[in-house]
Amino acid sequence: MSAMTDARETLNRLWKPGCDFLGSEVAILGGAMSWVSERNLVSAISNAGGFGVIACGAMTPERLEEEIVATQALTKRPFGVNLITMHPELDRLVDVCLAHNVSHVVLAGGVPTSATIKRVRDGGARAIGFAPALALGKRLVKLGIEALIIEGSEAGGHVGPVSLTVLAQEILPHIKDVPVFVAGGLGRGDAIVSYLEQGASGAQLGTIFAASQESIAHENFKKAFLRANARDAVTSVQLDEQFPVIPVRGLANAGSRGFLKHQAETIQKFQNGAVSKEDAQLSIEHFWAGALRRAVMDGDVDNGSVMAGQSVGMVKEIRPVSEIIATLVEQAVEAIAKREDRVHAPAWSGYSAMSPPSDIRTMPLRSDQPSVGTILRTRREELGWQIEDVAQWLRIRSRLLVALEADDLSSLAGVAYAVGFLRTYAHAMQLDADGLVARFRQEYRGVVNRKTDLVFPQPEGERGLPVGLLVGAGLVVVVAAYAGWYRFASHESPADRRVPAVAELMSGAATPATTSPQVASVMPGRAPTPEPHVSQSVAPAMTPSVEAPPAKALPLAVPPASQVQPAPAVTAGAEAGSEDVDQNAGDQFGPATNTPAETPAPAVPVGSVVVRLLAPVWMQVKDKDGHVLVSRVLKAGESWQGDAAGAPFRMSFGNAGGVVLSTDGTTSAPLGRQGEVRRNVEVTAEAIKSGAFGNGVALPAQPASEPSNPSAVPEAVDASQDSPAPVVKPVPHRAKAPAKPSAELSADDLNARQLDQSSPSH
User: Fold this and answer.
1) Which among 78, 186, 425, 627 counts the fewest CB atoms within 10 Å?
2) Mean pLDDT of the chain
3) Is the dihedral of CA 391, 392, 395, 398 positive or negative?
């Protein structure tokens, strides 16, 4: 019980500057939350020993006066009022606070002027400001601010870009003249203690109080807090730097997704010239108008703004404010007590075979005591411990501990090691370690300080053959082996073997008119379309050629006369474009053959989400259950396809400017600027179709290859339904020389080239 009492006294000492400044029992402020921090919650916090703060927000002076009077009727303890420095009637609001003897005024939302600070202080109130950086904190102190609040990005509502852990390290060691309160992501008392020990005077919490019993927030609002975890509290996303969005942290819902869609549509209208830049910015800013009230008061947690900090994951139940504050204090006291135990008591539980001594007080040394080793051994035997157990516990070899107990200095490596082992052993035995070390140095001075004599083994005499002779013999063997190889090995020039190009193995794989199958698989509606031609079958030699009437012609390029070769007669068994049409007539890599055409790449399943990479990008994708589907660097031209069953996906990109999304024929714009990092982007097929990620330029169709001879006149082949199947007049076909090996392109190069040709411009 005394340990807990001491811990509570330590806590009181740590936050005493904050308590004295606020005039409260505990240095815990209630964060000012619009529509939530009103008379009921503020008075409950103050009555529980904390310090409540009214959120003025957009209140008129008359409305603020009404709220202050109502709060004073519910509590006689001090409380404060949070004023927005951008309020058009700021001076009148300050006068209302002073007229009703409000003890503290928090100036938030911007840098207050020296005149406003002076107005507050001259009226008898204490002025508090927010410091998002060390330089601004020092400036506010010079202007007359009497206390600072440093709020990290983990907080709910309007936040800055820096976390509390970084702000605390940046500011707390350097500002000592005024109390500094920490805020952002705090939900436990032990976390508060850690900042108090760094120099903070207290803490401000908001999210945990918003879900209390005294909070007037709608039950739906509170239940949303109970269901949420820390990762659900995200900041609002800005799509275009031309239209800045103030970051606000809240729970992700349909409203936050709708905000992305609204931004995309508004930006598109501006780019099309439908609205001016000022009107577009105003439209984006007005999207959330009244959204916070709808969530807090009306319970519309789907479309309203559910502002919450990342500590929302620690809200497990709806409790009274007094119980919340009592729990925070209890956690803080327990954390301090455990820390004191770790600092001042040995880790007896580190080895289960050893029980702690009944009396853990340090035993002083007397001058008439025996040697150091005898003291150690006697104490160990009193405790009933074996030397092996102590050695295993302390991670020191047992022979060294035996040497210490036996005063066998010859077994110790040196004075540094001996003193270190002795000090550790003495601490474990609850002896006066410093006294034992001093006696050890005094009694054995000069004994263990001598340097250990180094003994070097004598070199052995040379035996066997000389080294030079062995090296010479080795060289002879190597030369003889080479001569034999040269004599019997064949030195004929190797045959010129060329690895066939991809184009020779895959018909149509690299034609300028055909999209590669790999790219087509991730480009809806862009499957490769082979050039139309007719299948060929060898006609009997005596069958005369019949020229078909010109209808539904299929163009066939006529090569120069020097390259014309007789072609077998072609029978038109059906209309042009039927299943009998040969798919190889348009092959640019050689003469037409009867080889069946490749099957086109299968279409992307309906509802699938496809991620296409326009540049090297690190990408991580998680499905709706949080499973990581991919986490690596993808090259330009690569793609990833997600099945609709795994949506919504959460995606993070190291280079958002090199990423586009597509689904069911809809392609988005790049997800950001080149080099921009985006994390936890929620992606669904519906969001892509709705334009939430912007609309990209439709992928252009590949142009058909032009005949090499512009003067060549195409001949038509027709199969009339009413006439018998005619025999097509033989058409000469030009065989193209095979591609040179030096110009071969790999499949990856083809993919990259296709992407470069079809990617929208930025």
Assistant:
1) 627
2) 77
3) positive
What tokens appear for 293 in the block?
């009230």
- Residue 396 CB neighbours (<10 A): 17
CA nearest to 228, candidates 241, 248, 247, 210: 210
pLDDT band at 394 (very low <50, low <70, confident <90, very high): confident
Closest residue by Cα to residue 613 from 437, 709, 754: 754
Q: What is the SS3 assignment for 633? A: strand
Q: CA-to-CA distance for 490 and 509, rounded, in angstroms?
A: 40
What would the mean pLDDT of 435-448 be, rounded to a whole number?
71
Residue 618 and residue 571 in contact, taking contact as beta carbons nearer than 8 Å = no
- Euclidean distance between CA atoms 231 and 251, whole angstroms: 9
41 and 216 in contact (C-beta within 8 Å)? yes
> Peptide bond before 648: cis, by omega within 30 degrees of 0?
yes
Please state the three-class secondary structure of 441-480 as a single string: HHHCCCCCCCCCCCCCCCCCCCCCCCHHHHHHHHHHHHHH
Q: What count of residues does the chain have?
A: 762
Mean pLDDT of 732-747: 48
Among the listed residues 416, 415, 413, 390, the one whose alpha carbon sits nearest the alpha carbon of residue 401: 390
Other beta carbons within 10 angstroms of residue 352's beta carbon come to 8
| HEC assignment per residue over 279-319 | HHHHHHHHHHCCHHHHHHCCCCCCCCCCECCHHHHHCCCCC
Query: Beta strands 126-130 and 80-84: pairing type?
Result: unpaired
The β-bridge relationship of strands 104-108 and 649-653 is unpaired
Q: How far is CA 192 from CA 28, 166, 357, 559, 740, in A?
A: 9, 15, 34, 85, 72
pLDDT at residue 257, as a whole number: 94
pLDDT at 723: 42
Residue 698 has what pLDDT? 53
Instruction: Find the distance separating the first CA and the last CA of the chain, reported in whole Å.
Output: 69
- If you average pLDDT over residues 521-530, what whole number do you get? 46
pLDDT at 487 (0 to 100): 78
**CB neighbours (10 Å) of residue 761?**
4
Instruction: Characterize 19-30 residue by residue with b for buried, 16 or more Cβ atoms within 10 angstroms of its Cβ, and e for exposed.
Output: bebbebbbbbbb
Q: Spell out where 65-103 has E strands.
A: 80-84
Whether 514 contacts 529, CB under 8 Å:
yes
Cα angle 740-745-751, degrees, rounded to a multiple of 5: 155
> Residue 176 corresponds to which tokens in the numbers above?
């000592």
Q: Residue 76 burial (CB < 10 Å; 0-12/13-18/19+)?
A: exposed
Residue 305 above 90 pLDDT? yes
Label each residue of 500-564 as H, E or C: CCHHHHCCCCCCCCCCCHHHHCCCCCCCCCCCCCCCCCCCCCCCCCCCCCCCCCCCCCCCCHHHC
Residue 354 has pLDDT above 60, yes or no: no
User: Model-level pTM greater than 0.70?
Assistant: no
According to the model, what pLDDT value does residue 352 have?
40
What burial class does residue 649 get, using C-beta atoms within 10 Å of its C-beta: 0-12 exposed, 13-18 middle, 19+ buried? buried
